[in-house]
Design goal:
- By secondary structure, this protein is mostly helical.
- It has a domain of 137 residues.
- The strands form 2 sheets. It has a 3-stranded antiparallel sheet with strand order 1-3-4, with helices on one face. A two-stranded parallel sheet has the order 2-5.
Length: 211
């Protein structure tokens, strides 16, 4: 074999090795690039999901705080009126001297001052407030039912004004609604579950039962 053939063989072999190395480098570069893109895409998706979750959490907390503030006002008002009703019905030194008409006006004024409230009421047991239900029989314009029971219900009309009327016969109704609760559940439940000390178990209801 002459020297030219040897050089040619060496050149071809070296070229083949170089081509193999280049091909391996290209293949690795492509593989590494794909892996890098996959890692970047995965990391980007994780960051986007974290950011979206944080944004939704912040929005939910903001809405929750707003709703809580809106609910705190009527809850505090209902609790104050309930405690006032308890004081009116308490014997002895703890009793608050407030007549029926004053309490009706107080309810109406309270409803007018609260733009977020649609209605406000108080329900008393027969003759519980002062023992004078007979004097107010049928006075619906002042919030009494046909027996004179004190059940004023203030509510807002479509034109934004407020009016008062008796809350109606549903107060004592045992009729079951499609939901399964009684028609008068809003009053019957607090009355049936009231402690013997005449405290108000449910701050959302302005009810009182003379012990």
């Amino acid at each position: 074999m002459n020297s030219r053939s040897i050089r040619t063989s060496i050149t071809l072999l070296a070229g083949a090795c170089i081509l193999a190395v280049v091909a391996a480098l290209i293949a690795y570069t492509l593989f590494a690039g794909q892996r890098t893109r996959a890692l970047v895409d995965s990391h980007t998706e994780a960051l986007a999901a974290t950011a979206a979750e944080a944004r939704l959490t912040a929005e939910a907390e903001a809405v929750g705080n707003q709703l809580q503030r809106q609910l705190d006002v009527p809850l505090q008002l209902a609790n104050q009126l309930a405690q006032l009703s308890v004081a009116m019905g308490s014997p002895g030194d703890q009793q608050v001297e407030l007549d029926r008409q004053s309490l009706v006006r107080l309810l109406g004024q309270s409803l007018k001052r609260q733009s977020g409230l649609l209605s406000l009421y108080t329900v008393w047991e027969p003759n519980a407030i002062d023992g004078q239900d007979d004097r107010h029989r049928g006075d619906a314009a002042a919030g009494y039912d046909e027996q004179g029971r004190f059940t004023p219900w203030w509510h807002k009309t479509l034109d934004g004004d407020v009016t008062v009327e008796p809350i109606g016969p549903t107060v004592e109704s045992q009729t079951r609604l499609p939901s399964g609760v009684r028609e008068g559940e809003y009053y019957l439940c607090p009355r049936e579950n009231a402690p013997p000390a005449c405290s108000i178990p449910c701050p959302t209801r302005s009810t009182n039962s003379r012990c």
